[in-house]
């Protein structure tokens, strides 16, 4: 009863302005919160109008049908939604194009209701009624946890004052210990919820291209089923696809390497370069790097932030295991392994050669066959791993240990067999491939020095996420360590 009374009193104080609730979200995430409501309103409105289009009107002549066709109101809704989101937003551009197209199609439209309901109506409903509300529900839960944390902190400080202690001393005794534990537990629950909410918010921003694709699907379905409007639809589709393809801020996790490099104008994949650069600063002497599992919520948040081009360097510099985990996840989630499916047999055959010199020559030959993009990124990564082994007395990561934990993320079979076969391959062959390449990195990739970490002093530690509709996957140019672009291989790792 006393705990409930204290919570009600804390809430009442915040309501009337006598106490200020702690704000735990950054300015960027507060902007995302506002954006969520706008996208929810636009998505809900678009879904509602699209559903009305599926109902159709019968028994009227062409002129009356055209005037009252629900598709006409849908077109108007889309244009208004585009105005809300702005032309600089991909969703705004897509809504505007689609709205104009619907207006032209209204005279000849024959709706294929089942197809549109499945491919357009339901995803929009999920976005406005499930995905966004779930994030908003988490936001409310976070507000409650913040209230609990503030309430616990207040009770703890009040206990300090009532004990008659000075401000620089802490109360002692069972009650004080209980209050302090309660305060710390409340803060921990709040932090876990905040990380989860932050990851979901960043994921929402990173997936804008997925939400925009609903409207491309609408156009494509109409193009297929409305033969009389085919010419019009074919003229508008290239414009829509051009916006999709030119939108640089596509997620990089799970995407083909060459596609990501082409869109970002890089030589080294953004997650690889960002994680390696940070690990050079803070992780080289961390014991069990790549082997110790990071916090699941922290890893999810880091991956989501990398996916939308935002990186808070200061936050993750204290958690090198999360950085290593994000790098491993990127490599494993590539549609094709960095060492390529095509060369899988070459790698395995090379690892089976007993003579060491011949085995190294065969591995070197396989390296040279890698596509240019794969070769550049593999070379970059191996140079870093070689540098990591220089600290193996401290970090315990020998070339063999690195090969065991990282090898399966660099090479795997196109159609993986059973667990026994896969484990045998990992232990006996992949380790025999990666370990000697790390050991002889300078021979496999001659020229230049190994990676050198640089001081991040003077660096703007957080790459802010702009909400003008353009998210730039880059770091501040005044930061020596993290100004990563297509030529940073020469600046960060002299290969």
TrEMBL record:
GO terms for molecular function: GTPase activator activity. PROSITE patterns: BAR (PS51021), RHOGAP (PS50238). This is Rho GTPase-activating protein 44. Residues 255-445 form the Rho-GAP domain. GO terms for biological process: modification of dendritic spine; negative regulation of Rac protein signal transduction; neurotransmitter receptor transport, endosome to postsynaptic membrane; regulation of actin cytoskeleton organization; regulation of dendritic spine morphogenesis; signal transduction. It comes from Takifugu rubripes. Keywords: Cell projection, Endosome, GTPase activation, Phosphoprotein, Synapse. Gene3D superfamilies: Arfaptin homology (AH) domain/BAR domain, Rho GTPase activation protein. GTPase-activating protein (GAP) that stimulates the GTPase activity of Rho-type GTPases. Thereby, controls Rho-type GTPases cycling between their active GTP-bound and inactive GDP-bound states. Acts as a GAP at least for CDC42 and RAC1. In neurons, is involved in dendritic spine formation and synaptic plasticity in a specific RAC1-GAP activity. Limits the initiation of exploratory dendritic filopodia. Recruited to actin-patches that seed filopodia, binds specifically to plasma membrane sections that are deformed inward by acto-myosin mediated contractile forces. Interacts with BST2 (via cytoplasmic domain). Interacts (probably via PDZ-binding motif) with SHANK3 (via PDZ domain); the interaction takes place in dendritic spines and promotes GRIA1 exocytosis. It is found in: Cell projection, Dendrite; Cell projection, Dendritic spine; Presynapse; Recycling endosome. Its main location: other. Residues 14-249 form the BAR domain. It comes from the Eukaryota. Pfam families: BAR (PF03114), RhoGAP (PF00620). The keyword Phosphoprotein applies. GO terms for cellular component: dendritic spine; leading edge membrane; postsynaptic density; presynaptic active zone; recycling endosome. InterPro entries: AH/BAR_dom_sf, BAR_dom, RHG17/44/SH3BP1-like, Rho_GTPase_activation_prot, RhoGAP_dom.
